[in-house]
Amino acid sequence: DHSSDNTLDILKEIASSDERIRIIDNAVNIGAGISRNIGLSEAEGEYIIFLDDDDYVDTNMLKHMSDFAELSGADIVVCRSRSFNLQSLQYAPMPDSIRKDLLPEKAVFSPGDIERDFFRAFIWWPWDKLFRREFIIQHSLSYQDLRTSNDLFFVCASMLSAEKVTILDEILIAHTINRKTSLSSTRSVSYHCALDALVALRDFLFKNGMMQKRQRDFYNYIVVFLEWHLNTLSGEAFNKLFQDVKLFISSFDINNEDFYDEFILSAYRRIADMSAEEYLFSLKDRVLNELEDAQRNILTLQNEVEEIKQQLQQKDEMIASMNRENLAIKADNKILENYNEELKTVQTKFLKLLSSKD
To answer: Which CDD domains does this entry report, sorted A to Z (predicted)?
Structure first.
């Protein structure tokens, strides 16, 4: 996508030794969404996957996923993933990328089999999902031209449209986090993209007659998703998005009973009832409360550690005392053994003496 570094040179070097690789070089930088659409239009294979430049892929990822797709006949195969923190250089699991507690207990399922909370069953990024290309073409699905959040609509609409979905229970990709130069770290520049993606998803649900079935799921998801985005912003970007989020949420006939838990209900009430200033004060209070809770938890853990240390010290002292007792018993046993030997000797002499008198 018209990279400013030497990415193109690296790609050309790799492609020179592998005829399967085809490079498409955009004349100008047009963003991930449109670039992915170009790749989709040029692709010829049976399956397609959209990978990010900064993620770490298992050597066998494509083979394992395509083999699994062939075996299951699935439109979409989802694999497990983990995160890689560029600052700490540590890997960590990502259990929420596939919420098995929300999925049906079947090897191959359809979206209709997901009974509740559909939009939180997966995370709507593309790089852990393999798509059957003909399925994407048949449903005329494409990415939005957005700076960020351009994958949400495409991936979510694809999942809603699929007839067969399956899970490959292998960790095959690591997603980079805490990369300071990534677009996701600069949301203030494109703060409205998240809302634009949800508007497109809302329209898709209505157009395809899916909103009635997924209405509660959608309400729960938009509250969680939008509050998370609001909490990553500050200043003018926050104020503008907050007002638009209030308008968007108020356009639905949402009731308190629509939410699956108190956490989401509380988030909804904060957005619906508070001003931008009140929301920020509320966020500050929540952060301070979480900090206080964390400090209390740390103190509790420290006390527990100290108590365990004392218990271990007591056990060590008990073990040392038992060892001393064992040594004393061994010494007493040795004395008894010597005494028994002497007694046997005396008995032998006594018997000999009696025998000689006879």
So the answer is: Glyco_tranf_GTA_type (cd00761)
Q: Rounded to two decimals, what is the model's pTM?
A: 0.78
CATH topology of domain 44-185: Spore Coat Polysaccharide Biosynthesis Protein SpsA; Chain A (3.90.550)
Asked if 7 and 52 count as a contact pair (C-beta separation under 8 A), the reply is no
Residue type for position 33: G
CA distance 167 to 129: 9
Tokens 């007694």 belong to which residue?
343
Cα gap 151→187, rounded to integer Å? 15
Beta-carbon contacts of residue 122 (< 8 Å; ≥ 6 apart): 78, 97, 98, 99, 155, 159
Give the pLDDT of the chain (358 residues) as one tens digit per residue. Answer: 888 888 899 999 999 999 999 999 998 989 999 999 999 999 999 999 999 888 899 999 999 999 999 999 999 999 999 999 988 999 999 999 999 999 999 999 999 999 999 999 999 999 999 999 999 999 999 999 999 999 999 999 999 999 999 999 999 999 998 876 665 556 677 889 999 999 999 999 999 999 999 999 999 999 999 999 999 888 899 999 999 999 999 999 999 999 999 999 999 999 999 999 999 888 766 666 666 667 777 877 887 888 888 888 888 888 888 888 888 888 888 888 888 888 888 788 777 777 776 6
Q: Where are the domains of the chain?
A: 44-185, 194-273, 281-336
Q: Which residues contact 132 (CB under 8 A, 6 or more apart)?
A: 46, 47, 69, 74, 75, 76
